[in-house]
Structure prediction request, 181 residues.
Amino acid sequence: MIDISKYKWFLYGGRNVTLVTDHPEFDLQLVEGSKFGYRKIGANHYIVSRKMLDIRFKVKEKDAARITTNSTGWKGTIRGVKVEPGIGGKQKPVKVRPGNSTYPDPNDKNLYILDIDSSNLLRAWLDKKAKELHVVFHSEVHWLYEDVSLAMAKQLEKAESQGQYFHYRIKMVKKQRKISG
Prediction:
């Protein structure tokens, strides 16, 4: 049996995700509100579902980062064991550091912060007045794209594949500059 006390626990808040195994009956669905544990052992990353405590899912580092980025820490008791919360992406510090910002200020009314769930894009926000889209990739490299409207930012946010929409509609056509990373 898996020692769930060694995992950091999260409450998932992103788009539906399926972790696929060789046996479809053991595929894991993460939907909004799912509780899961995450643990890194050496170079390996593992996810455990509260609903399937006897199975741990080995995931790629970028997938683990994407899943935890769209989650918040969860503290509680599972099968009589107290579990500790992890630090999810929705809980990271959000200070803007001019010229070297990788986190938007959520209190800035001029910013539109996009809900991102992508294997390529980590987070994005739009400066509505300047019409500048800031994109931070999973590598923590931060780029700025000029002349992006609020409507386009919302289309990116709603796209079935945010990475493809970004690549073909923004990256390939908009003037850009690297901010940091």
